[in-house]
Amino acid sequence: MVARFFRPRNRTAPAAIWLPGLLVVAATFIPAWYLARRSTERGWDPWARALENSAAPLMTRSLTLALVVAVASVLVAVPAAWLTTRAALPGRRGWAVLMAAPLAIPSYIMAMTVVDFLGPRGTLQGWLEPLGVERLPEIYGFWGSAFTLTAASFPYVYLVLRAAFATADVSEEEASRSLGAGPLRTFFRVVLPGMVPAIAAGVLLVVLYTLSDFGAVSTLNYDTFTRSIFVEYQTSFDRTGAAVLGAMLALVAAAILAAELTVRGRMGRRASRRQSLMRPVPLGRWKWPAAGFLALIALLSLGLPLGVLGYWLVKGLQANANFPEIGSAARHSVTMAIGGAIITVLLALPVAILAARYTSPLGALMEQAAYLTHALPGVVVALALVFFGISYARDLYQTTWMLLLAYVILFLPNALSALRASLLRQPRRLEDAGASLGRSPLRVLASVTIPLARPGMASAGLLVFLTVMKELPATLLLSPPGYDTLPGLVWSRSTDALYAGAALPALVLVGLAAIPVALLSWRGDLGSLES
Amino acid sequence: MKIARLLLFAALTAIPVLAVACGGDDDDDADNGSATAPATATATEKPSGSITIYSGRGESLVKPLFEQFTKDTGIAVKVKYGDTAELAALIAEEGSKSPADVFFAQDAGALGALKATGAFEELPASITNLVPVTYRADDNSWVGVSGRARVIVYNPDLVTAEKLPNSVRDLTSATWKGKVGWAPTNASFQAFVTGLRQLEGEDGAKAWLEGMVENDVKTYKDNKAIVSAVAAGEIQLGLVNHYYLYGFLKDQGEGFKARNHYTAAGDPGSLVNLAGVGILKSAPNEVAARAFVQYLLGEAAQKYFSEQTFEYPIADGVAADSRLKPLSELQPPDLDLSDLQDLQGTLSLLRSTGVLK
Asked: Binning pLDDT at 50, 70 and 90, where does residue B164 land?
């Protein structure tokens, strides 16, 4: 609301901004364009058949899973975010890093380790055997998938919420306390309602993530929409059938995004300059239970996967297992992650400026459109780019440039949310001052807006680096032959059931992905992740 | 200012890349029918000195073999590893412009799918003569290179040898309630269901699948997960391919708690599936690709499959691992495992019985 006050009227974006912005957004439509073509190449019969078959119940299953994962993530993330921003908790910064760290673990690795540890006759059962536990309840299916996906994706909600807690206006809270309301009443009546936009943003990310996930549900055997897309390729080698299902998934995602856009518009923004001037809330006798809660989360989402990987590694070392050569894979992965981060951030910049600085509805629409690919399984996006690349960009096809383009399309939303938030937080007065001094809009951008957006650009870059490190399906299909990567090695070793051999690249991958997570959460610059 | 220059750079890089994207829509049909379009970019190496393989077979299994091929022939090999079905989709998507020379698939179904799109060239007699007629495509568009039998893997601590079922039909009995595992998304399993449909008829196959579901069969991701689960005692029996066990035994020693059991000859459970290869019509390096396929059917490679991956060699003259029941004794049902029509029928059946959702 405050921001709008400073917004100059009748500003149109210079072509140097909207043209690249438009082109970038056009690129993000490649998957949708591909799906539209492929899914209708045999008319509407395949659509009718898919609807007759099990499309509806499958979508219900996917959405139920997404909903449960979202609710569970919120239940974990709200207390975790509050404790690590507002409470007088010893070692707050350390906890903050631990809560964000599961982001470094891809869902396929999380799922592998969950099965190994919590399986009916897994490691945990082995520990409990002396107590007479013959087998643990089934981990496969809905609850196992929900657990794994929550562990892998609650940090998204946590990061958004932490940023919101850190930057929220605390005056209402102070007023509530000074009027005699207790801390709990204040939290539920004042603080929490203020968090609704942030919770909604986090939930959106988790829902899209869950809808598109294949790694966890395939390992844990829960039939979702993405899994049935895979079955189409796998069993009947039917690209049309798979594209029909992919298009349906995209339509559902579009509906969700449209709903989010409406809700966001109605809620407005609650920005504030007064950041966390409030004294941390003393926890008293709740200090230990609070620390215990955070420790439990860290144990399940971080300790479990790392412990299992470490165990495989040690076992493999003892058995003299055959470890893959990971030098070149690590080099390739890091190169792609750095390249992907730089290019994605640069290309996201014009879109973010349009969305944050110019009132045209096109900006918001463009931004929202970029999220669509988030709900699509990586295989679909990858095949779309294969089709695009082979037909229209033959010289780029199966070069690392094609891979980079895939990363841009896949991870533009991540970069956008970080950039836009940082642009929205800038005081508009400085730009207006620049403009009033006779500088052209472009020069204002170059000399004021962009330098001020640098922290946001850094966060966006770290975020993209992280997600590129973890990406599997597009990396497998689009990388040039012989270009090995860490996720590729983990995948190939684990499909060959060589767990010791998978553990080494998996640990290196998680270690490298943890660097940006640690930087982001330690710096406390999470405000830039608010979407 | 530096940032401004970066922005400019970004815009400038974005424009040509995306201009291609937008401009492309005009000549939409460029990808159809231009079968003669020569592949360029990746084919710049010596034409006969290098091939590109799309391998649906795991890197840890076949990479040593590929390296040996390069050593023996001087032909360099570039490999793209991936899931067999995804690579088949990739080749179909790439069409006539695929940079691949050879597709090396885990199962006959994927080869049949590409055969149906006309992606493969007809192999010369010098290659097809090496393979018995049952182990190659009827139009010689692909050949099998190694065989894998369906077996029941069991945990010897939990099931004694005499109690093992002689037929997969017995698995629906109360004795095995909740004790059997399968992997319905796995291609070999689906090939088995196709065989079942032919032997028992549509109704018989349906009844068996429903009986299994009713009998609380446990679903797993793939064969490896089943063998692990059997060894861990999670389940007692599993429907798998024969060779996974030997990988585990080699990795974890003879104490590994799983063994293979063959069902009776002629049982639908005793199917033999194939891993095989086809050469793409669009192969930029056809001559070298043929040399590669020939190599896979030669003694060294066939021995490799027998000794390293514990599969059945297909070409004459190389013996299978002595622990395996000889191929000649299996009497698998006679099926064309690459028949796509059949695959789609199997998928419908798996869906209508609720085995796949």
From this structure: very high
Q: Can you give the CATH number for the domain in which B183 is found?
A: 3.40.190.10
Q: Cβ A223–B41 below 8 Å, yes or no?
A: no
Contact indicator for B36, B95 with CB cutoff of 8 Å: no
Number of domains into which chain B is organized: 2
**Residue B229 C-alpha, separation from nearest chain A C-alpha, in angstroms:** 8
Q: Which residues of B256-293 are buried (b: 16+ CB within 10 A; e: fewer)?
A: bebbbbbbeeebbbbbbbbbbbbbbebbbbbebbbbbb
Would you call A183 an interface residue with chain B, using a CB distance cutoff of 8 Å?
no
Angle at A56 between CA A51 and CA A60, to 5 degrees: 165
Q: Tell which residue, A523, A499, A480, has the closest CA to residue A489.
A: A499
Alpha carbons A64 and A205: distance in angstroms, whole number:
15
Chain A partners of B52 at a C-beta cutoff of 8 Å?
A: 481
What CATH code is assigned to A11-268+292-529?
Answer: 1.10.3720.10
- What tens digit of pLDDT does each residue of B118-136 get? 999 999 999 999 998 888 9
- Calculate how close chain B gets to A77, using CA atoms only, in Å: 31
Instruction: Kindly state the tokens that stand for A350.
Output: 């014009």
Judged by DSSP in three states, A461 sits in helix
In total, the C-beta contacts within 8 angstroms joining chain A to chain B are 222
Between B268 and B81, the higher pLDDT residue: B81
Decide if B346 and A235 are in contact by the 8 Å CB cutoff.
yes
- Domain check: are B215 and B74 in the same one? no
Is B25 inside a domain boundary? no
Give me the pLDDT at residue B6, please.
45
Predicted TM-score (pTM) of this structure: 0.82
Listed by start position, the domains of chain A span 11-268+292-529
Binary contact (B17, A230; C-beta < 8 A): no
Contact assessment for residue B10 and residue A412, using Cβ atoms and an 8 Å cutoff:
no
The answer on B194 and B230 residing in a single domain is yes
pLDDT at B18 over 80: no
Contacts of B307 (CB under 8 A, 6+ apart): B321
Q: What's the residue count for chain A? A: 531
**A409 touching chain B per CB within 8 A:** no
